Known about the structure:
Blueprint: E1 3-9, H1 13-24, E2 31-38, H2 45-51, E3 57-62, H3 67-76, E4 82-86, E5 90-91, H4 96-107, E6 111-113, E7 116-117, H5 124-134, E8 158-162, H6 163-169, H7 179-189, E9 194-196, E10 202-204, H8 210-230, H9 237-258, H10 262-285, H11 288-319
Parallel strand pairs: 1-2, 1-4, 2-3, 6-9, 7-10
Antiparallel strand pairs: 4-8, 5-10, 6-8
Pfam family, one: Glycos_transf_2
Domain Glycosyltransferase 2-like: 4-169
Keywords: Membrane, Transferase, Transmembrane, Transmembrane helix
Amino acid sequence: MFFSVIIPVFNRPEELRELLESLRNQSFTDFEVLVVEDGSSIDSKEVCEYYASKLSLSYFFQFNTGQGFARNFGMSRAKGDFFVILDSDVILPKDYLQNLWNAIKSRSLDAFGGPDAAGEDFTNLQKAMDFAMTSFWTTGGIRGKLKDVSKYQARGFNMGVSRKVFEEVGGFVDPNRGEDIEWSIRIKKAGYRMELVQDAYVFHKRKNTLFSFAKQAFSFGRNRVNVSRFHPDAIKLVHLLPSGFLLFLLSIPVFGVLGFLIFKLQLVILGAWMLGVFLNSLAKYQSLQVAVLSLITSIIQLMAYGSGLIFEWIKKKITS
Length: 320
């Protein structure tokens, strides 16, 4: 057996159903599926029982430990040569595993990370959130559009490692605070070949509201600082850009009240950025509503991530 697909799930039976259906339709069939129910109050047992006759599927229930440790549980029981880790709210194109297998074999990969995208049937808000999380106009471009694929830091919604990597490097060391980024850095430092596989993309069907999207982005900023506790070099210049954007927005009314000439320049810069976001989203999705929503989600993503990073950095300085 080549692939073992590990899926931690928490209170998401219907989303898991969509993912399992997309796995059932894969063109590449040499794989097993391990679903790890991480202490859910709304479990996915019935969903897994239904798909047990359609897939080589194992279902496990454990007390809540966090997604990182739930993935470790699954990998420790996997039988395949290569472990694929997916979030339960993604859907796979039918050639996902085939494209991934081709990349692993042709590029001799020990580990990989894949990008996410929005499906045509997604809501306008889901498409706008996808834009904010993947766009050049935010920091989203680093998630799946790097020219140097070896610099990619894989994310837990779509990543994987060989059995050898798991056995020699170990699994996740944190339950849910940037654990995927920490693992990516540790794998690379151990000398293994991890790269972005652009063709191994997933449709990321986020169920966020704007408020929960902001909370998630805030936690992403905090997580980056948490990763720096394990790897001091984890924070690069690009990760500071959202904090700079936040401070830039906060300074606009201040300079406006004080009457500084820089206020007009700030408005020009902000207007150019907003126009770029709007036109890019409009060209991508062919929808005025999605383009407007993309402006909102992009601002939320940058401000929330930036404030989360600043908050956790100050907390780290106080407690260290």
